[in-house]
Amino acid sequence: MRNDAGPREPADELNRLLPAGRVLTDPQVTGSYAHDEAEWAPHGLPAAVVRPRTAEEVRTVVRVCLDHGVPLVTRGAGTGLSGGANAVDGCVVLSTEAMTAITEINPLERLAVVEPGVVNEDLRTACAEHGLWYPPDPASARWSTIGGNVATNAGGLCCVKYGVTRDYVLGLQFVTGTGELVRVGRRTAKGVAGYDLTSLLVGSEGTLGVITEVTVRLRPRREPEHTVAGHFASVVDAGRAVAAVAEAGVTPSALELIDRHCLAAVDAWKHMGLSTEAEVVLLGRSDAPGPAGELEADTMLACFEGAGATYAVRSTDQHEAEALFEARRLAYPALERLGPVLTEDICVPKAAVPEMLGRVDAIAARHDTLIANIAHAGDGNLHPLLITPPGDERARDRAQAAFVEIIAEALALGGTVTGEHGVGLLKRDGLRDELGPAVLALNRTVKDALDPMHILNPGKVVSSSRKDS
Amino acid sequence: MRNDAGPREPADELNRLLPAGRVLTDPQVTGSYAHDEAEWAPHGLPAAVVRPRTAEEVRTVVRVCLDHGVPLVTRGAGTGLSGGANAVDGCVVLSTEAMTAITEINPLERLAVVEPGVVNEDLRTACAEHGLWYPPDPASARWSTIGGNVATNAGGLCCVKYGVTRDYVLGLQFVTGTGELVRVGRRTAKGVAGYDLTSLLVGSEGTLGVITEVTVRLRPRREPEHTVAGHFASVVDAGRAVAAVAEAGVTPSALELIDRHCLAAVDAWKHMGLSTEAEVVLLGRSDAPGPAGELEADTMLACFEGAGATYAVRSTDQHEAEALFEARRLAYPALERLGPVLTEDICVPKAAVPEMLGRVDAIAARHDTLIANIAHAGDGNLHPLLITPPGDERARDRAQAAFVEIIAEALALGGTVTGEHGVGLLKRDGLRDELGPAVLALNRTVKDALDPMHILNPGKVVSSSRKDS
């Protein structure tokens, strides 16, 4: 309900209701909050950016948006790759950047309570001081926030053994689409009191609520890892090695694929002395304790060799092993230096990894597009990276066509259109194809139920049932 | 919409639409489908019991119920302990007992696809033949079904290390409250395409949909376990040992508490030669591979001794260790031989376990009620078992009062009213107290969205927003 006696502009009302300095309206500044890192995803310009410091302030923001019928787009660090945090024209962008408190780290209960703006790496560092470990480790961990990780159900390198963000979220405090501040979930190890609204919020990309606090499960610090590296003549050979590791019954703590394009781009940027002789490098790790870890590493080595590795070795040098994983994490920003990078995020059954990588190669050739590959290969979660020369519109059109084809091939192989980056804007068509009309309608029903006024990140993931999407 | 041209009775219409033998209406027979194992939970009598064999037949049942406005109560083996499967008068009970196919066990993708009526133990046995392991292991594993386990998000003994049913459900096929047959979730290791309707259905106790197929994640077969047993003079001492294990950074593969009452009841029934000298027995296990497992077992032993165990030992006899865990699993049916048993299912923070066990003792004394204790102690998931002499109404009233007080104390200690048995009927008041009005309203909003005609297991968990609950 619009308050006709009050100020008409949401920014004015936010300024009136919140402490000084919370609201930004200078277009030079607000423009930098207008989009995430998804290449080519459309975005509008926010009417205001607000940086609340407390849950109550977040509630005020939601209520002002409700009052004015203005869309609210929540963002963390803006490292998303699907456009999920992109502004729509005239919206309020809520940035969680000022909510950075680590409220509790509890070694006995093995949990932490944090505000949404806490950077992933900062939480991991703080946990380590207590002998604890927060596993989810997206490659963006140095910049991305726990709130953003929860909103997208972020994955990472260790997911192949330890699962994704949702597996670590015990409870949430959030503001609903009707402006209520609520707590869901728990602090106990188990609990089945009511529907699992916690899991429902995780991965909902700001469309069902605005997260103000996260309670995460922690693990004890783990053993140092053993690293195995293998060079392969083709992505398909590397894919066969991945399938062999799964068949051997090993659960590696990481199993990452990086191709020559990525290694070359990282080396050109960071001068790490990386070998670019191999077409593809596979990096396997085991953190099983004691002799079990040795055995797993040896088994992976044998799998790499059996799949035709041109070179394979157990790394004895911890520094060298770290450099290889650092190269993996830097692959995306390194490639971005060459031109716009459109990031794919498909996930296919493990058995389909070689076939899918082969199809990506074929698509690259067919559309004359440079496609580099990084992959959480052990999960079947592939990130083909489509690189175009800056300013080349025709190359962009070709890459766009390749992007669509990769999604279709992933679905044809029984995969999903997004393994960990989220639907955002870039995967909305893919989502429709994947879910089909009945499940899409169920998703919309849930959206309508939790955000009845349709102010929370409209147009992302699914639209309301009232709108065409 | 009622089909005025057709038969007026749902049983007649079900008989007309389904193959012969699917529908039971003999009250002698249908009465045995009227309730689960929750003592004192109210139940009505079904108008018909139907045992469909396919997902399409399930859809037919849902559509007939929609057409006639008749409530539909789904049940697996009926081993539930909260009344979640209890019939309401005139309802249709859908039993999944005839849907017992294990459709797929896939070692490479580490998943299985099963019909809902598959018994937990049967799935575990089938997986073991492929070197695989389905972890969730409720004490009812020999009887309870995967469908029921999913509907209640069942826990079990190994949850302390391996998580609960929800952690293993990758995807579901189910019939919605509007009679659509849909698939949610995936077969891939990761995926964030749309809201997590899979987790929403898990633990929803048949109130949001009727599950027709479950895709579960599997693990590789694990190492043989090391077992540590400790005798304690009080539940509080045992509780301190549990806290010490958590503080020592050990993640046991089981950490179970059984008191003297349970051991005596099992021994009187099964003549297993169990010692009943100890007031309380703690059973710890480690399945960490190789020397790590030895170290964990030794650490647990030291924790037991440090907390004042009167006797503690690492079991070297696998048969003896199995007998102790068998006694744990048989505790509930053994006590039932003595009289009606009202089963609690609270879960408290680990640090609160000694305090909570002490309060249970005090409540037992205050209400002159025999309360035996079994507990997934490492999770803080306690099952006080309130035992009353058959036919003693006043004892029953005292036990009922104790039951309510235990729930209140669990909430006061930051716990939950149900760790793994579900809300059903017995925990509806507790649920209200735990969630509070705003979150309860959110739960109802979700219920209304997915079951708009309010035919799915009405009165369980939360009522629709249209009804008082």
From TrEMBL, chains A, B:
<protein>
    <submittedName>
        <fullName>FAD-binding oxidoreductase</fullName>
    </submittedName>
</protein>
<keyword id="KW-0285">Flavoprotein</keyword>
<feature type="domain" description="FAD-binding PCMH-type">
    <location>
        <begin position="42"/>
        <end position="221"/>
    </location>
</feature>
<dbReference type="InterPro" id="IPR016171">
    <property type="entry name" value="Vanillyl_alc_oxidase_C-sub2"/>
</dbReference>
<dbReference type="InterPro" id="IPR016169">
    <property type="entry name" value="FAD-bd_PCMH_sub2"/>
</dbReference>
<dbReference type="InterPro" id="IPR051914">
    <property type="entry name" value="FAD-linked_OxidoTrans_Type4"/>
</dbReference>
<dbReference type="InterPro" id="IPR016166">
    <property type="entry name" value="FAD-bd_PCMH"/>
</dbReference>
<dbReference type="Pfam" id="PF01565">
    <property type="entry name" value="FAD_binding_4"/>
</dbReference>
<dbReference type="InterPro" id="IPR006094">
    <property type="entry name" value="Oxid_FAD_bind_N"/>
</dbReference>
<keyword id="KW-0274">FAD</keyword>
<dbReference type="GO" id="GO:0071949">
    <property type="term" value="F:FAD binding"/>
</dbReference>
<dbReference type="GO" id="GO:0016491">
    <property type="term" value="F:oxidoreductase activity"/>
</dbReference>
<dbReference type="InterPro" id="IPR004113">
    <property type="entry name" value="FAD-bd_oxidored_4_C"/>
</dbReference>
<dbReference type="InterPro" id="IPR016164">
    <property type="entry name" value="FAD-linked_Oxase-like_C"/>
</dbReference>
<dbReference type="InterPro" id="IPR036318">
    <property type="entry name" value="FAD-bd_PCMH-like_sf"/>
</dbReference>
<keyword id="KW-0560">Oxidoreductase</keyword>
<comment type="similarity">
    <text>Belongs to the FAD-binding oxidoreductase/transferase type 4 family.</text>
</comment>
<dbReference type="Pfam" id="PF02913">
    <property type="entry name" value="FAD-oxidase_C"/>
</dbReference>
